[in-house]
């Protein structure tokens, strides 16, 4: 079974600085998707970024970018120019292509200090 | 605006009662999902539905039931057989199973009193 591991239960960053959240996953499949979701205090899950495994280019969405290392099964999220609104739980998730299920990590709580 | 509406936001249940959590979407999505979230854990799949009048068990379906009579609606019933129902429940949808990714509702917090 696929598993997703987020080794940092909590992280903190100063406003305007850069922070990287780690995620590793375990799978024997070669065709899959990886996601980062944000869950702010409102608790609604918001898709931050999505990466397709067959694409070598790392995905970016404005201040959010990923470092996807397929051989190492690593998928880290970099947040640049951190803002107070970035404070949230961040979940890494894996999905085998065509599968109904997302497999989630346990999350990393990000605090942004003014 | 299109989205997913979950209600109620907070729900209290007495021991032995069944309760139903509502999930409605106006995104015209075929696939809908229910996940459970517990403190310090990720999300776990309870049930999912690919199409009207069809649904499948996820990883933790015991003590739960669902129906999908309309494309827009996917209610979840937490039965008295669910031994530890206190949790945060999230509903999600997407255009099709295995699609771009989920759109989530804002969740329902269920507490057993």
How would you portray this structure in words?
The complex is a heterodimer of chains A (114) and B (113). Chain A is globular, with a radius of gyration of 14 Å. In chain A, the strands form three sheets. In chain A, strands 2, 5, 6, 10, 11 and 12 form a six-stranded mixed sheet that branches. Helices cover 0% and strands 53% of the residues of chain A. Chain A has strands at residues 3-5, 10-14, 19-21, 24-26, 32-39, 46-52, 60-61, 64-69, 74-79, 88-96, 103-104, 108-113. With 114 residues, chain A is mostly beta strands. In chain B, the strands form two sheets. In chain B, strands 2, 4, 5, 6, 9, 10 and 11 form a seven-stranded mixed sheet that branches. Chain B contains no helices and eleven strands. In chain B, strand 5 (43-51) and strand 6 (54-57) form a beta hairpin. Chains A and B meet through strand 5, strand 6, strand 10 and strand 11 of A and strand 5, strand 9 and strand 10 of B.
